[in-house]
Amino acid sequence: MRHLMMITVSTAALFAAACTPATDTVAPGATETTETTETVMSTNPLLAEWTGPFGGVPNFDTASLDDLKPALEEGMALNLAEIEAIANNPEPASFENTIVAMERAGEPLGNAFRYWGIWSSNMSTPEFRAIQAEMAPRLSAYSSQITQNAALFARVRAVYEGEEMASLRPDQQRLVQLTYDGFARNGATLEGEAAERYAAIDQRLSELYTAFSSNLLHDEENYVHYLTADQLSGLPDGFVQASASAATARSHEGEYAITNTRSSMDPFLTFSDERDLREIVWRDYYNRGDNGDEYDNNALIMEILALRDERVELLGYENYAQWRLENRMAGTPERAMDLMEGVWTAAVARIHEEVADMQALADSEGANITIEPWDYRYYAEKVRAERYDLDSEEVSQYLQLDNLREGMFYVAGELFGFNFTELPEGTVSVWHPTVRVWEVTDRETGDNVGLWYLDPYARTGKSSGAWANSFRGHTTYDGQTNVLATNNSNFVEPAPGQPVLVSWDDATTFFHEFGHALHGLSSNVVYPSLNGGVRDFTEFQSQLLERWLLTDPVVNNYLVNAAGEPMPQELIARIRAANNFNQGFSTGEYLASALMDMAYHMTPPEEIGDPDTFERETLERLGMPNEIVMRHRSPQFGHVFEGEGYATGYYGYMWADVLTADAAEAFEEAGSYYDPETSRRLVETLFAPRNSVDPAEAYRAFRGRDADPQALMRDRGFPVTE
């Protein structure tokens, strides 16, 4: 679930901004470019080379929004000059003077983009959003200048088709392949009016993505519901205290703020006895971007879909989904749909069972209601407590955020050989006072691996959800670089002196996102562009790490209450017994979103009509139960409509779930989740190579075969079809 920097530039442009300026294989005139780079880097702090400890780190203390626009303008100009030098090099194209030279190009702009990412996701303001809206189309135009640089593409093609290719190492061949595809699949083969139209579409899409994101953030910031003391029935003490702090921070002293984020909405709907208030909070959350006002996203969705469809038609594809999945593990949208539809049938059947159980309980209590979506979490919690004697509030007493973090560090040490040591405040600069930083070292050698930044709390201007990011990846092609990884969450900041108590789902997500960080920290790739990944594979590593939350060493040593007492064994047994409880809801709400994502991109835009109607009618055809909704309704589906990283890729979580379930069985067959040989093979074949190896080949190297799809059905307790 990567929430990456959404700046809407093409793959090739991201390649170009990946690393350091060209220094040895450049055309005449490069000296002038290098001098200009040094001048700009000395005057604009956002472009400056990172200095200080740990191989250099971003300097957030000197970062100012006033410098962002000029940094982007200067950085684009510098990068384009480097690109021109590569494209016009009089020497025959080679891997070194073309592909590697592109890897080196664009460091100053890359630095500026990393600050952009923090302002966009962690510290957004109206001032930043104005710059974002202005610069997004200009960044898109810059990207098109690279992808449509005929001389540059000719050199890339020459390497791709040349004799040198056969002599390159496998990782170098993959880099050439990815670079070539990044051009060919993004309009480099087009000419004349088609090329101009492609660039214009990209530019307009960048504007639409920015507008969608801004509208969604507006509704998240402005739909806050304030409670009074007589409206707190059923709510856990920790949540009440955190809500009081959130209200005070918003100048509502003496009240309790339910913010429009999942981390606030979810526990409120789970525990609040006030049904009318549950409906209000539910509607606020699921109507984000869909309120019929100036911040409504429905018209933006339709324009985005039409432009995406037109753009891939220029490249000769039937629809956007076909284009997008061509280089994914699934290969075709039909294969992705086959997997999802098979699981969907089982999930819907389980949802009906869950609803029947909840309705029976509500009837037995004399509630005189029919279960509605805002009742699902509330009555599911009651059923859980009755069936498994399991109270989420009881469980959360043993899920303290600081202890969970230490549990993650333990797992990282046992599997990856990493140690984490927190840096004293002020050692490196951070973008917000609540951000903390740890040094990561190799347990055997003591060598620095990188830094890990944690931004745990929700605040105004921060995107909702949880995500991982990085400021720098591991490379060795120009000397070894260390990793600067980040994890970002939206836990409700506690009252002073109080621990952060989280739900089991939130604890699982915390481990999940840490898996993304470990994927970056364990990298052994040579070139920057190989630190990326194939979307329906990159979620696998993080989903797999969730499994270690319930392992004995973590449970026995890190799931402790405020008195330091470990979670009782009988409670652990109840949690394990309830492991597949409510699986219909969690699978169904996710799959509904993933199926809608695919439906939007496999249907001709002119047949969609308006998103609200299309969403409702499509879900009706699928047999969507009335008691649940999509995890991300269309007008708030940022994964799909704030950019293109997850567009027709949301299914990837399910694809990765198959790999996860199958890989978990490998550890179970070995007898332990800490089995040394299985752990070694996991890190060496599935984490460290990143995107330097085809994902299917990487998985076969770990498991000795392809993943078994039925492992997913076994894992979720659904009927298995052999």
TrEMBL record:
Transmembrane segments: none annotated. Residues 269-716 form the Peptidase M3A/M3B catalytic domain. One of its GO terms (cellular component) is cytosol. Residues 1-18 form the signal peptide. The keyword Phosphoprotein does not apply. Binds 1 zinc ion. GO terms for biological process: proteolysis. Coiled coil: none annotated. Its cofactor is Zn(2+). One of its GO terms (molecular function) is metalloendopeptidase activity. Keywords: Hydrolase, Metal-binding, Metalloprotease, Protease, Signal, Zinc. Pfam families: Peptidase_M3. Belongs to the peptidase M3 family. This is Peptidyl-dipeptidase Dcp.
